[in-house]
Fold this sequence. Notes:
Helix content: 55-70%
Distance between the termini: 28 Å
Oligomer: single chain
Shape: elongated
Strand content: 15-25%
Number of helices: 13
Amino acid sequence: xxxxxxxxxxxxxxxxxxxxxxxxxxxxxxxxxxxxxxxxxxxxxxxxxxxxxxxxxxxxxxxxxxxxxxxxxxxxxxxxxxxxxxxxxxxxxxxxxxxxxxxxxxxxxxxxxxxxxxxxxxxxxxxxxxxxxxxxxxxxxxxxxxxxxxxxxxxxxxxxxxxxxxxxxxxxxxxxxxxxxxxxxxxxxxxxxxxxxxxxxxxxxxxxxxxxxxxxxxxxxxxxxxxxxxxxxxxxxxxxxxxxxxxxxxxxxxxxxxxxxxxxxxxxxxxxxxxxxxxxxxxxxxxxxxxxxxxxxxxxxxxxxxxxxxxxxxxxxxxxxxxxxxxxxxxxxxxxxxxxxxxxxxxxxxxxxxxxxxxxxxxxxxxxxxxxxxxxxxxxxxxxxxxxxxxxxxxxxxxxxxxxxx
Length: 406
């Protein structure tokens, strides 16, 4: 029996029991559909998180104080004053793999303009902060080195601050706002960035020269953190190592002693979130795969029933010279065909549901091609694995006993 003839006979056998075949496929359809949707959700969320973290800055490297213990009491990191302007200048001068560095000090307070007020966070930074955090000026200018040098009371504000302090002002540039009763002249408006992955409003921000915020708002001389931008994503890891070496040398930290600072890169953050997303995706796919196993058992059950129903037909074919291997191939083909057709419908359903979910929640859907390839392969293997036993049983029938079967 040639391959084409085998397909025709298998297809005709399935067509005779269309409803039963479709019901048998349902387990495979649901299983494949679930796997496609879960893999798509996992890949889409991974892409979304990576994109949002990348939006936080350009190859961002953050240096922050580390909590340490004094007289047996471990202090909070925010209470540690281990970072200084000299650290910032050393990184700026000696680290060859960063192209921008900015000190950061920050404080929250009430911003006021006329009768409007808004609780906001004031960031004291250098002009390079714009490049490091991938921010853009929509109107006006960024603070300058001259503003830092002269402790100028100027500020650049984000969209949220703009909307709350200047709801009716068409031209806020040049106006003066008060932050904790200190006047700041608005010289620039930032382009909107929206809400970050961590739920933080990136537009609720006021940027002023770090020297001004240190002396006029906070009354401190240390830094809360230092932000830097590596020259490339590939160089980020080596840049982190350079920063660590320089700060250990400046802070006189001996080998084996605990650092009083922490250095983290954007890549580490992306790797951490990607790892979590992949684990969750694997867990969901494993759960969804259970449907495939249930579907495969359904196929085996139906094929076994089919062998019972067609026992006399099998006996007749064997009695007139039919080969056992052809019987085995025919039933195996029917099993694979049911599984394959179910997988095809499941893939189409999975893709459509993924697109629909992406449209409803306004999400960029990424359907991994390997999910479709793997689904086809798994469906075929499921058909072979669960169809083998009934097919083998059919081919092993004794012709005389089969013809006597009632």
